[in-house]
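Hi support team,

I'm filing this because I wasn't sure whether my run with magnesium ion finished correctly. The job status page said complete, but I'd like someone to confirm that the output block is well-formed before I use it downstream. Pasting the exact inputs I used:
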Amino acid sequence: MMNLSHTLLDSLKQHGACEMFGIPGDFVLGFFQQAVSSGILPLYTLSHEPAVGFAADASARYRTRLGVAVVTYGAGALNMVNAVAASYAEKVPLVVISGAPGAGERRNGYLLHHQARTLDSQMAIFREISCDQVVLDDAARAPADIARVLRSCLTHSRPVYIELPRDMVAVPCGPATSCAAPSTDPAALAACVTELLARLQAARAPVLMVGIEIRRFCIEEKVAKLARMLKLPVVTTFMGRGLQADCDAPLLGTYLGVAGPAAVTRAVEDSDALLMLGALISDTNFGVSEKTIDMRRAILALDGEVTMGYHVYPRIGIEDLVDALLERAVRLHAAPLTAPLAPLYPRGLEADEAQIGPSDIARAINDAMAAHGRMAIASDIGDCLFTTLDIDNTALVAPGYYATMGYGVPAGLGLQAGGGERPLILVGDGAFQMTGWELGNCQRYGWDPIVIVFNNCSWEMLRAFAPDAQFTDLSDWHFADMAVPMGGQGYRVQTRRELRDALETAIATRGKFQLIEAMIPRGVQSTTLARFVNGVRRLQQPKEAAK
Ligand code: TPW
Ligand code: MG
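And here is everything the job wrote out:
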């Protein structure tokens, strides 16, 4: 006999989920038992709920499918709020499943353990960071409610919240069902495409900027084809770094205003028709633009609508837009491109006795990927993320806009669990202090990521913004020494030669996580971080003075 847990698990699977991450607790124990005994979806447990959220988020981003995080009520779910907020901000289809008190205990007159204020406080908190919610307290409605919520998750590419009272776990329930996707209005779409192509055709220097939605909605190949047909040079946003890595697109590089490669900055800021597909208009993407982009001439497809000039075409799905453009595209006569089409990333690390800087790590990685093949990267926030701008374009998951620390290590675990290949994890020492322990879970599942800790004994990004601050020095924790007891191997490297050798050995060693602790002198930053911080400071100054 089918029960509500089976219906939920089947529905998740039918909507594309391939695994779940979680930490049990008494309010969700029954569902964990159902999940494991049914074998419908594999379940990976980690150590701390933020990591559960990050791992599920990363798997969803990387594989373009639902991510699932299962936690207990209160202490578990509320521990995951920051991770879910990150998924909300960066448009990741994450399904949060939380256990909850059953109907009888809700009425027994006691305060219940894990209760914050009211029994519904948790729902209220998650309503703010999810696009749809349901409490599965009615088995008759459950199949349709689950289908609605999972449909919302995919349509909006944002988290949803499912609360499962523990007395409902095994009640009989009908089979999983599904809801139709919303449709685009064909007449509005036709009008939109006509105007959009006319604007591109009239332009002197159109440019295509791609953002995260093209991955979320799985249209990277189509967008690359569109760029080729329209002869549009392509740039990614900062958040979109890693997009088009596996496509044949005329890619110029990643736009980061005054901090990014000059040719890309020029192309974007001089464009008189910037077509932005799925790009978040965030400060990390655009805050360091010296010449502000003229949004009146830009065309923006985001959040299911298209904006150009002073008007909006509502209800236009980005995939429908790209399909229609592909159908109608005629060759536009874009100006000859001034920049080389294939951006050049630094290679050929000098394996000498010099100290290591962030750009040496980029070089070492580029050399290794040239020799052994590309790896997908999970990066934390910190100078390691700015360093990815010097690393060959390869699949990347990182919190480039929401910028939460602690993402990198659990995200890498999520990549590998999600059926991906062995990932490369880039993380600062400060962020590693937050979630580095999660590596101890690799031994149970056979995961063997390669982790490079940028150990500058410092919150260096903060030092960059506040050079005189007294609180940005961190101690030397000797992370590499912790690797063996946690089931991995560690390498503490001080010189470029040691860095190269450790990376070679790490790549050759399978079956255990490989932790390379790269010692970087305090104050040594990547050129991109230095330019980013200078840019932010300089561009914010006049505004501050005007206050
Ligand atoms: C959850 C604020 C942004 S960057 C940073 C802090 C504290 C320093 C990072 O140090 P780390 O990297 O990891 O050693 P590096 O290269 O700068 O030395 N809490 C959270 N997220 C953020 N973003 C902060 C605080 C922050
Ligand atoms: Mg640091």
